[in-house]
Here is the input.
Amino acid sequence: MDFNLSEEQLAFQGAARAFAAGEMTPHAAEWDEKKIFPKDVIAKAGEMGFCGLYSPEDVGGMGLSRVDSSIILEELAAGCTSTAAYISIHNMATWMTATWGTDAVKETWCGDLVTGQKLASYCLTEPGAGSDAGSLRTSAKKDGDSYIINGSKMFISGAGETDLLVVMVRTGTVDSGPKGISAFAIPSDTDGINYGKNEDKMGWNSQPTRAISFENARVSADHLLGVEGEGFKIAMKGLDGGRINIASCSIGAAQACINHTQAYMKERSQFGKPLAAFQALQFKLADMVTELVAARTMVHLAAFKLDENDADKTTYCAMAKRFATDIGFDVCNNAIQLHGGYGYIREYPIERFQRDARVHQILEGTNEIMRLVTARRILEDGATDAIR
Ligand SMILES: Cc1cc2nc3c(=O)[nH]c(=O)nc-3n(C[C@H](O)[C@H](O)[C@H](O)COP(=O)(O)OP(=O)(O)OC[C@H]3O[C@@H](n4cnc5c(N)ncnc54)[C@H](O)[C@@H]3O)c2cc1C
Here is the structure.
């Protein structure tokens, strides 16, 4: 693993940084305040290839590595963390469709998904099945050459505004556990699908979050992703990358906060000196940067493990997600402190980065579940040699 970015990676980083500065940063506060889901800007991101980052080239994706994708998502998140986080989920759902979709599904959907003309949601969580996703109850019953879907999903990002739903449902018996779960790509306007209200949230206001209900929604059998009973594995494979993505968004938010703080500490004077002259504040900034560099390095390591299809990729992705989203939130929070009262008011972007980064500790598996995944592996014999 090379710790220096290659020429190509520097070019991706530069392009994403310029896109974020031009298309996202100037509007992020308004999107947050007015709850605007900027589909036009997401489509422009799609023109740059950012909606199909690691989807394969044969469906029109960029076919990038997860390390490259992380570098790009970090830059987008420094522009608008909430919008970048939606783009990251779209990338996950698009990759799942491109990887496990039938030829018919890929032909119908992938071209528009990778360009951001059509958008996707990832639908796993249910009202009664959050951390314990393997207990989900939304059912799919075979009926001729289609399936009939009944049940409900909770907290679905983009729902109501997206075109394709990647939905995990139970095709097995009620007590069949994760092995009775299958994944489907379902057009969002299918009869029998209804959407709840856009939830009022602490952050992530530039993307809607809604519950979805399915009442006898009929989906053609060729919309099954992979084979029956493989849906939970597919969902978890999607989440390995999703966790890298969301961790990258936390790093982008935190880096933006550090950039603002570094400048602010030189501008703002108290007691006749710039804040930057106070050693206590220098030390706080030094710790913020140190921890962020450690978090970024760990995310790149986990992304590299995923690219290499390492046997312990899932554990590394869980550790990196836990670490980077906790550090990302703490860095944003410390940036508020270093801005004093100005950090708390909306005229400055710091509080928005902190509000947006908070949910990264909760979704795509809470950070408690990330610890559970890590501990389960590390307690196996020989694991301490494999994970170090
Ligand atoms: C803004 C937002 C967007 C979201 N987007 C999506 C989406 O697009 N698609 C999707 O499928 N889901 C989405 N989610 C759902 C998210 O993934 C879940 O909220 C999350 O997995 C936690 O589930 P829960 O809310 O039911 O909490 P619970 O599972 O009820 O957990 C409550 C608390 O208990 C802890 N806990 C639970 N079990 C254990 C255990 N065994 N050991 C230790 N601690 C435990 C949890 O860590 C948490 O702290 C989103 C959520 C939010 C808030």
User: Anything to note?
Assistant: Residues 231-267 form the longest helix (37 residues). The chain has a mean pLDDT of 98. The chain has 13 helices and ten strands. The CA atoms of residues 244 and 317 lie 6 Å apart.
